[in-house]
Structures are given as structure tokens and as C-alpha cells.
Predict the structure.
Amino acid sequence: MINEQRLVDNFLNMVKIPSPSLKERAMADYVKLELENLGLEVTEDNAGQTCNGNAGNIIGTLKAKGSSTKKILFSAHMDTVLPCDKITAILENGIIKSDGTSVLGGDDKAGIAAITEMLAKIKEDNLDHPEIVVVFSIAEEIGLFGARAMEVEKYNPDFGIIIDTGGEPGVVTVQAPYAAKGKITITGKPAHAGLEPEKGINALVVASHAITKLRLGRIDENTTSNIGVVTGGTAVNIVMPSVRMMYEARSFDGAVLDELLAETREIFTKTAEKFGAEFDDSIVKGYDGFKIDPNSEILSIVEKSCNDINIKFDPRKSGGGSDTNIYNSKGIPSVNLGIGMSKVHTKEEFIKVEDMVGCSRLLLSIIKNV
Ligand SMILES: [Zn+2]
């Protein structure tokens, strides 16, 4: 049985520690000590130096006990989104939420709490287990920087289990999109709008002509794109000299995303040319998508582990990115498990104790089946 009190206490302790992205120091020190107390060998890498953070990823290793020859990575991220300077958690009727002035930070401290509870249980009951690598990462929320910098090849795990998504325990993200985003700039030419507008090139007009030709919104079952922010102009009586747009696109199919980006650039380039304006963009691909084979070893293990403890195995597609994308792109077949975190990235964020317990049980079940 999971020690619910210990799990909740640990979660509440961590929630109190402010850990915005790149300022995870206090949180890193807390989990380092905790992993050491649980008998892991703990190091901190230099991921923080790659992104100007004040802490690195905390990595703990535990040698196998028993017959398993596999090595398994468990990971959750230490950073939380803002506002998180002062978090007061409230536990009421089995639900933990903030006092409404901040996020809760269950994204992703609930993941850390579940992994830690699994390790505590292994130690307490002297359970057999495969070789374990635990990574508590930094800077996930601002671009997966901790996972990117993590030298996972040094550890070479067979699979990765990331705990960083919503949905009840049993929900497993098995597919996530490729994504790209960045700024599009159209530069026209300023002129006095009343005296000599013909000498100007209105960047917004150029952009508008291009936008009517773009594919935006839901493009197909696997692909979306969006212009979310538009800024431009200097004064009402000046022909708008430039306009900037924040653009993003996602697709479960990497080739389709590449085609879409090429098409978008071509439309802007040609339209700008036609009007004598200039087009420039800083769109970059942020991370690779992934798709886990339904017949893969990792999925059969997760499915059996769900069945063994009577929870519904529920593989799903995700629309977003997580450290899971990075580990998959580094060649470690990895899935993201649901832990019931709800309304994340808002002040209404909450999590059910029951779901944290369920996720911890699932992790222990996975340990038995590896
Ligand atoms: Zn998260």
C-alpha cells in the first residue's frame, strides 16, 4: 500500500518551494537530499549553464535488485509556471488546490512526489526492481531545456517513463506533435498618410494579402497552425512601416510540418515581393514529435501494469510537447503518464490525492513488470 500521508506531505512541502523556470535551486537542493535519503546515488549536471539557470538536472541512480536486466528512466520537471512566488496549498475533500493567488505547481511536483513515493516504497519493503535512473529536470516550461541538455546517453536507459500530464492514472501519452514557432516580420515603408501615402508601403496590407492565402487553424487531422499575436504601426497618420506576427504550427507528421512551413514562407515571400516589401522570419522547429508503436515493449509493460492493479489503460495523443519528446528524439522510447493534474498553468490548478496515489501505484506496478 502507498503511504498516502507521506506522499501528500512530501507534495505539500515541495509545492511551498518557489521554483520558476531557471530558478529551481531550492527545489533542486530539496530533491537531491530526498533522493540521497532514499539510497540513490545523486548528481547534478550542468544543464543550468546551458540556459542561465541556477540549478542543473538532478539525477539519481539506483542499482537493480532481483532478476531484471533492464534500466528504466523516471522523470518529472522541477520548474513551474508563474505566478509561483508564494504558494499556499489547500487540501479539502481529497483535492489539493492553491489559495487562488498562484498556480499550485502540481505540474510537475505531483510527478516528483509520485516517483519519490515509489522509491520510498521500494526501500521500505525491500522490493525487487530494475536499475533505475531518476531525472528531475529544469526549465521544461520554457522550452524543455533541462531534458535537451541531459546527457541521457551516459545512462542509456531502455525506456523512459515521464509523469507530466493530465488525465487519470492509466492515461498514457503515446503520440505528440512536431512543433515550430517564431516571429514573422513584414517590412514596408513609412510615409505621411495624409500628404503622400503613395510613397509608403503599408506592411499590414501586405500581411493581410498573404494571410488570406495561408492555411491556418485546423489544417488536417494531424496538423494545426496559428497567428496568435500581431503588432505594428507607429502613428495613425503614418503608413504602417512594419508588422510582426507570432506564428506557430504543429503536426504529428514531421514531413507535413516541413511542407507547411515552406508553404507559409513562400506565400509571405511572394506577397512581399509583389508589394515591394520585405519578409523575414525567425520560425524554428522547437522539438520533434513521437509515436510509440502499439506493439512496443514499453507499451505492453505499461498496459500489463495497469491491468494488474485494475486501472484502465488509456493510450492517447497529446497536442503539446514535454520532456517526453526530447527523450524519444534521443532514442529512448518514452511515454508520458497521467497523474490527474488539472487546469494547469492557471490559478485554478488542482489535483486529487487519489490520482497521485493511483499514479504511484502504477509506477510500482511498472517496476514489478520490467
Ligand atoms: Zn509539466
Observations:
- The pocket of zinc ion is lined by residues 77, 107-108, 140, 164 (CB under 6 Å).
- Residues 129 and 368 are 7 Å apart (CA to CA).
- The chain has two domains: 4-176+289-369, 178-287.
